[in-house]
Amino acid sequence: MTIEIKVPVLPESVADATIATWHVKAGDAVKRDQNLVDIETDKVVLEVVAPADGVIGEIINEEGATVLGEQVIAKLEEGGAAKAAPAAKAEEAAAPAKAEAPAAATGASVDIKVPVLPESVADATIATWHVAPGEAVSRDQNLVDIETDKVVLEVVAPADGSLAEILAEEGTTVTAEEIIAKFVEGAGAAAPAAAAAEESDDDNDALSPSVRRLLAEKGVDPAKVKGSGKNGRITKEDVEQYLKGGSAPAAPAKAAAEEAPAVASGERSEKRVPMTRLRKTIANRLLEAKNSTAMLTTFNEVNMKPIMDLRKQYQDSFEKRHGIRLGFMSFYVKAVTEALKRYPEVNASIDGDDIVYHNYFDISIAVSTPRGLVTPVLKDSDTLGMAGIEKGIKELALKGRDGKLSMAELQGGNFTITNGGVFGSLMSTPIINPPQSAILGMHKIQDRPMAVNGKVEILPMMYLALSYDHRIIDGKESVGFLVTVKEMLEDPTRLLLDV
């Protein structure tokens, strides 16, 4: 049976998306809930998982292709996973010969060190070890993630070999160039591939991205969930059934009933995990903004139909010419840049008893990442065209998703734009990003009845929210700024004519 793999339904304020990364290729055997492809919108990355065990029959849209909601991008042949069996058997047959190789070669020992940290970062935290002592690894394979206040650094294997010893466990605070592990070159490089594959199947397939996310959200220990998938793999249905109190293995349940027949089948549990450095930093900065600024929020609304019509008319030609799709964010950035020129107080900041007016326009773009919210900076936005803005935002979003943002890309910024509309937010009061003086919140585009020239029309409307520091920005400037942004978005030709 052929199953169509489709793009998920996109948020209303997102017109289209881009195929970011295919994790499989045509002919690959896949398992239910295995992540097949990452699809990127303006600010979030969506995972598309396999609906069933099978084989990828055809990939219709390659990486970089622009796609729409519910568009068919690949085809899956259900039940075709058995085709991969011969390869597994061949690998299994080859395993004994490999196992006969010496367990430890006489390779050179290498110290694994923390990378050199940026000047403004004093120390870091060991976030995740991806390998265990004795495990064979390949050159450039990621060994460990090291987390600083805002960026995650990857430390890779210097050569083929194996990890001999871990000196700094997860959660340990480390400093630059500190030795965190011992590595042996060549040792165990030819470790049994079948055993490694089997371990990967047990650990990774049983906890595919969607299942792992559901377990984390509900605080469920995977060891307590009985897997009904292939080779005992845990599926989303297994987790949901467990949460309803009906997935405990039969034998243990019977034994438990004999020991304590009066105990209810439901279970109340808690999961305690340390707060990441990024989450601590976010918490401290939000609290600082609340306690050290006189924050106020003003609202307005904008008719998005002119921009939506403009994008529809020129989307294809824009993408052909510039190699990137035309999104909403470039219009937002252009409108904000023009408004900042007219209201310099919004582009200023307070430093002690002084007001610092900036004669440049660096816009922070709030980006949601797996580890939390970061605000990389799009510099000199007044010198960029629409295509330059779109490319800059895409580059920052990809780096943010992969944890590859540098400190230079995260520092500075005179004003922040955050778009909660991609998550469905209708209205919110964004919090200022110190030492900036204001932040603009964009929201969900929603059809609403509006009075136009004495008649009711259904228009795609969006609420704007400007939070600002009242110590430096008065009501006149804040309202004028927001009205300017509204006018620029409702009549995009103003951006071209500078009126």
UniProtKB/TrEMBL annotation:
<dbReference type="InterPro" id="IPR050537">
    <property type="entry name" value="2-oxoacid_dehydrogenase"/>
</dbReference>
<dbReference type="InterPro" id="IPR003016">
    <property type="entry name" value="2-oxoA_DH_lipoyl-BS"/>
</dbReference>
<dbReference type="GO" id="GO:0006099">
    <property type="term" value="P:tricarboxylic acid cycle"/>
</dbReference>
<feature type="compositionally biased region" description="Low complexity">
    <location>
        <begin position="247"/>
        <end position="266"/>
    </location>
</feature>
<dbReference type="InterPro" id="IPR004167">
    <property type="entry name" value="PSBD"/>
</dbReference>
<comment type="similarity">
    <text>Belongs to the 2-oxoacid dehydrogenase family.</text>
</comment>
<keyword id="KW-0012">Acyltransferase</keyword>
<feature type="domain" description="Lipoyl-binding">
    <location>
        <begin position="2"/>
        <end position="77"/>
    </location>
</feature>
<feature type="domain" description="Peripheral subunit-binding (PSBD)">
    <location>
        <begin position="206"/>
        <end position="243"/>
    </location>
</feature>
<dbReference type="GO" id="GO:0033512">
    <property type="term" value="P:L-lysine catabolic process to acetyl-CoA via saccharopine"/>
</dbReference>
<dbReference type="InterPro" id="IPR001078">
    <property type="entry name" value="2-oxoacid_DH_actylTfrase"/>
</dbReference>
<protein>
    <recommendedName>
        <fullName>Dihydrolipoyllysine-residue succinyltransferase component of 2-oxoglutarate dehydrogenase complex</fullName>
        <ecNumber>2.3.1.61</ecNumber>
    </recommendedName>
</protein>
<dbReference type="GO" id="GO:0045252">
    <property type="term" value="C:oxoglutarate dehydrogenase complex"/>
</dbReference>
<dbReference type="InterPro" id="IPR000089">
    <property type="entry name" value="Biotin_lipoyl"/>
</dbReference>
<dbReference type="Pfam" id="PF00198">
    <property type="entry name" value="2-oxoacid_dh"/>
</dbReference>
<comment type="pathway">
    <text>Amino-acid degradation; L-lysine degradation via saccharopine pathway; glutaryl-CoA from L-lysine: step 6/6.</text>
</comment>
<feature type="region of interest" description="Disordered">
    <location>
        <begin position="247"/>
        <end position="271"/>
    </location>
</feature>
<keyword id="KW-0450">Lipoyl</keyword>
<dbReference type="InterPro" id="IPR011053">
    <property type="entry name" value="Single_hybrid_motif"/>
</dbReference>
<comment type="function">
    <text>E2 component of the 2-oxoglutarate dehydrogenase (OGDH) complex which catalyzes the second step in the conversion of 2-oxoglutarate to succinyl-CoA and CO(2).</text>
</comment>
<keyword id="KW-0808">Transferase</keyword>
<keyword id="KW-0816">Tricarboxylic acid cycle</keyword>
<feature type="domain" description="Lipoyl-binding">
    <location>
        <begin position="109"/>
        <end position="184"/>
    </location>
</feature>
<dbReference type="InterPro" id="IPR006255">
    <property type="entry name" value="SucB"/>
</dbReference>
<dbReference type="Pfam" id="PF00364">
    <property type="entry name" value="Biotin_lipoyl"/>
</dbReference>
<dbReference type="Pfam" id="PF02817">
    <property type="entry name" value="E3_binding"/>
</dbReference>
<dbReference type="InterPro" id="IPR023213">
    <property type="entry name" value="CAT-like_dom_sf"/>
</dbReference>
<dbReference type="GO" id="GO:0004149">
    <property type="term" value="F:dihydrolipoyllysine-residue succinyltransferase activity"/>
</dbReference>
<dbReference type="GO" id="GO:0005829">
    <property type="term" value="C:cytosol"/>
</dbReference>
<dbReference type="InterPro" id="IPR036625">
    <property type="entry name" value="E3-bd_dom_sf"/>
</dbReference>
